[in-house]
Amino acid sequence: MRNIRAVVWDVDDTLFDYTTADREGMRAHLAAEGLLAGYGSAEEALSRWREATDQQWARFAAGEIGFQAQRRDRVRVFLGAELTDDEADTWFQRYVGHYEAAWSLFPDVVPVLDALAASHRHAVLSNSSLHVQDRKLRVLGVHDRFEAILCAAELGVSKPEAAAFLAACESLDLPPHEVAYVGDHPEIDGRGAADAGLLSVWIDRHGGGAVVEDPAGRHRIASLAELPALLGADTRFGAPSTFG
After folding, report:
1. Among the three residues 101, 124, 147, which one is the final residue of a domain in this structure?
2. CA distances (Å), 50 to each of 66, 67, 136, in order?
3. If you count DSSP H runs as helices and E runs as strands, how many of each does the chain have, helices first?
4. Prediction pTM value
5. Cα separation, 4 vs 230, whole angstroms
6. Are residues 129 and 50 in the same domain?
7. How many domains does the chain have?
8. Tell me, what CATH number does 186's domain have?
9. Domain containing 209: what range?
10. Is-annotated flag, keyword Magnesium (predicted)?
11. Are residues 156 and 75 in the same domain?
């Protein structure tokens, strides 16, 4: 069994309920902008926004455009309009106000951070930017839980590239085999971490029961309550493990 000394965390949809905040924030934003009537339904509008977000984020992750450019292009694609940078930035910032009003951690986050506080070191590795994630973690009240916060925009490399995961390990001065990575995406987080030599933990909140390890080297859990048992942590977390 590995001696895991640190946990590196993804942020969005792992610690922070990004999907809900994005949907609720955009719904409120479109209503305030008077744009909902232009779509068949609110769900259709939200689906279009999600598609634009995924498309432009993929371009950013591939190094084709910068972080701010992907935000601007999300707005242009979604609205189907030729906007100046200032116009796109202003529209996006109005959305951000509604989005931030819906920010929240998942309910299992603080209990597991408390349970592992004495036994493991903690850091963050995100495919976002430090400006965004540093502020987010402060607002959510967990910033001081992490020794290091690394983001793709500043690193110049993004998950699933091994270099991103290895940079997180280097920031903790630990070898990969002594570090666990917890993230919500089965490929970007799960397979990427496993391929880089970390203990890969895929948090699959919408999946079924957990499995010990799949062929890609990912350990799947349905709740962070299962993490201490997987790490072999001596805690009083008290959550039943689904690992057999």
Report:
1. 101
2. 19, 17, 20
3. 10, 6
4. 0.84
5. 10
6. no
7. 2
8. 3.40.50.1000
9. 6-17+104-231
10. yes
11. no
- Return the half-sphere exposure (C-beta side, CA atoms, 13 A cut-off) of residue 220: 17
pLDDT per residue, tens digit, the chain (244 aa), is 689 999 999 999 999 999 999 999 999 999 999 998 888 888 899 999 999 999 998 998 888 999 899 999 999 999 999 999 999 999 999 999 999 999 999 999 999 999 999 999 999 999 999 999 999 999 999 999 999 999 999 999 999 999 999 999 999 999 999 999 999 999 999 999 999 999 999 999 987 655 557 888 899 999 999 999 999 865 544 443 333 2
Whether 51 and 172 share a structural domain: no
Cβ atoms of 73 and 92 closer than 8 Å: no
* CB atoms inside a 10 Å sphere around CB 6: 22
Q: Closest Cα to residue 182, out of 227, 212, 151?
A: 227
Do the Cβ atoms of 31 and 39 come closer than 8 Å? no
Q: Is 98:26 a contact under the CB 8 Å cutoff?
A: yes
Note whether 6 and 113 are within 8 A (CB): no
89 and 120 co-located in one domain: no
- For residue 233, give the amino acid letter: A
Whether residues 224 and 110 share a domain: the answer is yes
228 — phi, psi (to 5°)? -55, -40
Domain boundary among 57, 77, 101: 101
What interhelical angle do 85-101 and 67-79 show, nearest 10? 90
* Cβ atoms of 236 and 115 closer than 8 Å: yes
State the pairing for strand pair 179-183/148-151.
unpaired
